[in-house]
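Progress note, sequence design subtask.
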């Protein structure tokens, strides 16, 4: 046992799940071991997003699926199913190995996109090369980054399409600049960053990704290689020779080995994962410890996420290097899980959750481009930029988005919480804040404040927030009607929205 405090246990489960359900902190404290909890999560059975998407269609009486059903299925699984760490990891990976349904080629294929998400889920704890292999062969990725049907110059008279070749290096493995193990940039003699690759590397990598075609008409079947349509000539990439006469499958294997084992990949991917789980501004020492695990384990993602979540950094309090802003969609999953949300109309599926596309500005596999919803290095102008600190999520979040999310919170708390018995025939998400209402009816302010702290704020509340929420209670003659406002102010507060 580690001897974690309530606050530390709550903080850990917050970053390792889609949100903490009632009783989970107490259950964790009986084992009080991050590594034991993680080990159980690594082997926990998990749900298929494709199957849940089909179930959505079945429950709605539809003969076909839609992207809205796919996203609703994601919420079904996030809110009510197990394997929470795997779900969080898959969501993080979906923001690295990006595809998006806003692409006209992918929009008609919701079930197949759910299958792509299942690839991320299945291989979330595998070695990174295996994950990248399955992603590379996915027709969803093949169409999104235009690798499918790529032909050599000998067949067309023009160079092969470079889209996937560029992005697999820039975004999926080695990044743009050479890095030290701790994620800091290497500098040349003029104190300038050193590029990891050049145009020739991109051209030759594109030649590796020739000869891959659809396996029938299905967008789920892995692409297959045809060597008569593959560039079989010799190549040199990142200083490594690829001999002539090698087929597409073998060259893909060599290219993935080269990229995954490149010195940059361990710190590059480790930094991205740390930023998605723990902090927007990890200390170099933290990155180095995680990157060492990546490098020494051949990119074993199960070991990498264990290193990320069991590091001593995770337990530090009031530290700008151990904090991040909640992504809007994860703020909502946390809220619904914390409040034991359930679907109305006696059903067991979610319908068009919270008008997600407009409300949050993000949803799974809904990025506007391969560069995700936000840059991992985004520095907002002002105090953060002046302090050389990043806050990726603030590239997505503006006042309009804050207002929309706040409105969803309030509508849920009031219309589908306190007034749940009047409206429970709607296809909406409902909550039942019974314990809050009981405390209100008993005129028990102390219990109400304690519930807010333990449910949403890791057991602690800033004095200013406590005074404001306490005043809401004090100014209501009927304390029952103070409940929605008290919960609302807690979940829109910086105490909740900033994970630290």
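Output:
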């Amino acid at each position: 046992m580690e001897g974690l405090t309530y606050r530390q246990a709550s903080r850990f489960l917050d970053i390792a799940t889609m949100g903490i359900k009632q009783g989970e902190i107490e259950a964790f404290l009986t084992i009080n071991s991050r590594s034991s909890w993680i080990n159980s999560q690594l082997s926990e059975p998990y749900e298929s997003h494709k199957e849940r998407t089909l179930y959505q269609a079945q429950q709605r009486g539809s003969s076909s699926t839609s992207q809205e059903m796919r996203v609703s299925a994601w919420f079904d699984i996030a809110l009510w199913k197990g394997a929470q760490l795997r779900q969080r990891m898959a969501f993080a990976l979906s923001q690295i190995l990006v595809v998006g349904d806003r692409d006209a080629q992918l929009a008609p294929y919701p079930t197949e996109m759910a299958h792509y998400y299942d690839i991320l889920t299945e291989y979330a704890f595998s070695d990174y090369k295996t994950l990248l292999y399955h992603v590379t062969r996915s027709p969803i990725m093949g169409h999104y980054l235009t690798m499918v049907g790529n032909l050599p110059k000998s067949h067309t008279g023009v160079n092969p399409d470079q889209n996937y070749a560029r992005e697999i290096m820039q975004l999926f493995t080695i990044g743009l600049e050479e890095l030290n193990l701790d994620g800091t940039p290497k500098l040349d003699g003029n104190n300038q960053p050193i590029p990891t690759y050049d145009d020739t590397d991109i051209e030759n990598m594109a030649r590796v990704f020739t000869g891959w075609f659809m396996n029938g008409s299905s967008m789920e079947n892995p692409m297959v290689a045809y060597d008569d349509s593959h560039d079989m000539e010799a190549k040199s990439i990142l200083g490594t020779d690829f001999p002539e006469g090698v087929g597409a499958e073998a060259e893909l294997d060599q290219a993935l080995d080269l990229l995954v084992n490149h010195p940059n990949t361990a710190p590059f991917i480790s930094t991205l994962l740390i930023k998605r789980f723990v902090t927007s501004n990890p200390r170099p020492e933290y990155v180095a410890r995680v990157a060492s695990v990546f490098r020494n384990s051949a990119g074993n993602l199960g070991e990498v996420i264990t290193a990320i979540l069991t590091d001593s950094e995770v337990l530090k309090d009031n530290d700008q290097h151990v904090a991040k802003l909640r992504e809007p969609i994860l703020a909502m999953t946390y809220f619904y899980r914390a409040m034991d949300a359930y679907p109305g109309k006696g059903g067991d599926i979610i319908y068009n959750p919270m008008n997600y596309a407009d409300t949050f500005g993000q949803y799974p596999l809904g990025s506007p481009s391969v560069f995700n919803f936000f840059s991992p290095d985004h520095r907002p102008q002002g105090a953060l930029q002046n302090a050389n600190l990043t806050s990726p999520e603030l590239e997505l979040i503006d006042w309009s988005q804050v207002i929309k999310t706040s409105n969803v919170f309030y509508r849920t708390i009031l219309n589908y919480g306190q007034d749940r018995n009047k409206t429970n025939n709607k296809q909406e998400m409902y909550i039942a804040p019974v314990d809050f209402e009981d405390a209100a009816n008993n005129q028990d302010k102390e219990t109400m404040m304690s519930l807010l702290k333990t449910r949403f704020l890791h057991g602690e509340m800033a004095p200013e927030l406590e005074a404001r929420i306490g005043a809401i209670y004090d100014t209501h003659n009927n304390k029952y009607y103070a409940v929605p406002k008290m919960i609302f102010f807690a979940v829109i507060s910086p105490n909740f929205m900033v994970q630290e």
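The mean pLDDT is 95. Work on this subtask will continue into the next period as scheduled.
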